[in-house]
């Protein structure tokens, strides 16, 4: 397999595949590197994607790769990118296979790594009865008794979204709450119970949540829980930082409207650039980054003539 291409895409999820599609449409050569660690692997379906609402994530990726087969300039590498360094002609990457290859542009599309609660039952329920996104899973569980596990400046944004889904909502802060008295009073007016005891585990039958065990000895009966990711987000790779890409307070790469980072020739897209984490938004972000790269590549060639 020929590794050298114009563009190195690190990540084979929605963002990376979206970038590849834009590049393929303009006959640019790109290598998509996928180490097979999709963030939505625990989920049995993805939603809020026109024509594909409810499809299995693995099936969605298969269909996109099938679409990409007609673009002969797009190739795939199954493995990891270990490092990327600036070179005279662009970038040089080292792969888990031991190979090295050169590229003109780089796309960081590896997304974020969820940091679960290291408590009994959480891993078994993640993506099944414990979720992070109401747009992805809220419709299916509307009317349930729901717990929101959150304790940050973003908590009340999530509370407003989830409260409308729940027949009964409680807010678990897993320790002392950081909220103001005004925020606590708002919860009281909305009849949302605030519980500040630490969580010690999750009671479940198979993939179905039954209750949340607290350090007080109480077990709060719930059918569904939403867990708001810890901030700042942890990215799946440090390659962007090693290249010198600047990040935001939330842990995302700083990019312009076309996905260009603060390092020339390096683009980023998907979950590692925005708080809006969904398949359709990641794919759109990747498509825009691909278009930004096409513009740069063809502009550079055109200006040399």
Walk me through this protein's architecture:
It contains eight helices and 16 strands. It starts with 6 loop residues before the first strand and ends with a helix. Strand 4 and strand 5 form a beta hairpin. It has a five-stranded parallel sheet with strand order 3-2-1-7-16, covered by helices on one side. The chain has a five-stranded parallel sheet with strand order 8-15-9-10-11. A three-stranded antiparallel sheet has the order 4-5-6. It is elongated. The mean pLDDT is 95. The protein is α/β, with parallel strands linked by helices and 305 residues long.
Report the uncertain regions. Answer: none
Average pLDDT, rounded to a whole number, is 95
Q: Fraction of residues in helices?
A: 25-40%
Instruction: Report on the biggest sheet.
Output: 5 strands, parallel
Domain FAD/NAD(P)-binding: 6-275
Keywords: Flavoprotein, Oxidoreductase
Protein name: NAD(P)/FAD-dependent oxidoreductase
Key traits:
16 strands; Ferredoxin-NADP_redctase_2; flavoprotein; 305 residues; FAD/NAD-bd_sf; five-stranded parallel sheet; 24% strand; alpha/beta; FAD/NAD-binding_dom; NAD(P)/FAD-dependent oxidoreductase
Structure described in brief:
The chain has 8 helices and 16 strands.
Produce the secondary structure layout.
Elements: E1 7-10, H1 14-25, E2 30-34, H2 57-68, E3 74-78, E4 81-87, E5 90-95, E6 100-103, E7 105-108, H3 122-125, E8 130-131, H4 134-137, E9 145-149, H5 155-163, E10 168-172, H6 181-189, E11 193-195, E12 199-205, E13 208-214, E14 219-221, E15 224-227, H7 239-243, E16 266-268, H8 279-304
Protein name: NAD(P)/FAD-dependent oxidoreductase
InterPro entries: FAD/NAD-bd_sf (IPR036188), FAD/NAD-binding_dom (IPR023753), Ferredoxin-NADP_redctase_2 (IPR050097)
Keywords: Flavoprotein, Oxidoreductase
């Amino acid at each position: 397999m020929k590794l050298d291409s114009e563009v190195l895409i690190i990540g084979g999820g929605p963002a990376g595949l979206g970038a590849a599609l834009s590049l393929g449409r303009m006959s640019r050569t790109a290598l998509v590197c996928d180490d097979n660690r999709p963030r939505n692997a625990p989920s049995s379906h993805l939603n809020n994607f026109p024509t594909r609402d409810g499809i299995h994530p693995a099936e969605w990726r298969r269909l996109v790769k099938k679409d990409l087969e007609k673009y002969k300039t797009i190739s795939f590498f199954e493995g990891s990118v270990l490092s990327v360094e600036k070179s005279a002609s662009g970038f040089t990457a080292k792969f888990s296979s031991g190979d090295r290859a050169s590229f003109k542009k780089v796309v960081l599309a590896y997304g974020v790594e969820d940091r679960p609660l290291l408590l009994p039952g959480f891993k078994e329920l993640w993506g099944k009865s414990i979720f992070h996104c109401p747009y992805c899973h809220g419709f299916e569980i509307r009317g349930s008794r729901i717990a929101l596990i959150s304790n940050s400046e973003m908590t009340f944004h999530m509370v407003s979204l989830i409260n409308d889904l729940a027949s009964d909502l409680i807010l678990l802060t897993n320790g002392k709450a950081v909220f103001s008295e005004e925020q606590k009073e708002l919860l009281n007016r909305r009849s949302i119970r605030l519980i500040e005891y630490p969580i010690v585990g999750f009671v479940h039958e198979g993939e179905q949540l039954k209750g949340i065990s607290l350090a007080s000895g109480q077990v709060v009966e719930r059918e569904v829980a939403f867990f708001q990711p810890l901030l700042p987000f942890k990215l799946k790779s440090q390659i962007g930082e090693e290249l010198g890409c600047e990040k935001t307070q939330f842990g995302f790469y700083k990019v312009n409207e076309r996905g260009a980072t603060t390092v020339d020739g390096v683009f980023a897209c998907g979950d590692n650039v925005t708080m809006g984490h969904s398949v359709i938004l990641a794919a759109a972000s990747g498509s825009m980054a691909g278009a930004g790269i096409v513009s740069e590549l063809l502009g550079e060639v055109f200006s040399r003539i």
